[in-house]
Amino acid sequence: MNDIKNPYSGKKFPPEGEMERPSIVIINYGAGNIQSIKFAIRRLGYEAVLSHDIEEIRNADKVIFPGVGEASSAMKKLRASGLNTIIPTLGQPVLGICLGMQLMCNSTEEGKTAGLGIFDSTVVKFSNKVKVPQIGWNQITSLKSKLFEEIDELEHIYLVHSFYAPLSSETIAVADYELEYSAALKKGNFYGTQFHPEKSSEVGARILKNFLEM
Asked: Which of 98, 110, 161, 170 is labelled catalytic?
């Protein structure tokens, strides 16, 4: 009898009772403090890769879209790599952080920049009545979605931003600085946080964990 090749030969499986870890990609397009996000994920017991490879991003179980800096410059980098057309088509859970969330909106006043059009919102700047940028800890309220599972109302999160997304039907968390605005957004499989979960202590760690376990 001819030997039948085992299609699973050499393949590693997780120990019995353990779930296979998801593949996690942090989009690396030159506009974010991505190492701090990677380290925060590692502290949760997961590993993430930094990548701008379109196929690697498409095939990931979870995608994180960070952003720090100026909106128009960040969008130029996305367009140069073709990621501006790929990100809106992703079907797995995607989390935009800070500028990443803002770029997922229709547009932003910063540099009069068109966004990715995922969230139906126009990002605007705080007025000169308050100190800009807002830097530091703030509270979140009106929490919705599994992203905030086991997170209490009025928990503190860390923010650094001069622009904000107004309240809308896609708002899943609210913060107040001069006025109430969207601290987080959700549409389908796309999530966005204006705050930095990787810098928001135990609360941020729980939010990241919730995202990774969706």
From this structure: 98
Q: What does the alpha-carbon distance between residue 115 and residue 152 come to, in Å, rounded to a whole number?
A: 31
110, 161, 170, 196: which is the annotated catalytic residue? 196
Q: How far apart are CA 97 and CA 197, in angstroms?
A: 8
**Residues 166-193: pLDDT tens digits?**
999 999 999 999 999 999 999 999 999 9
pLDDT, average across residues 157-164 = 98
196 is catalytic: yes
Annotated active-site residue in 110, 155, 170, 198: 198
Q: What is the average pLDDT score of the chain?
A: 91
Q: Give the residue extent of every domain in the chain.
A: 24-212
User: Does 110 qualify as catalytic in the annotation?
Assistant: no
Specify the pTM: 0.89
Distance CA 194, CA 184 (A): 6
Is residue 98 part of the annotated active site? The answer reads: yes
User: What's the topology of domain 24-212?
Assistant: Rossmann fold (3.40.50)
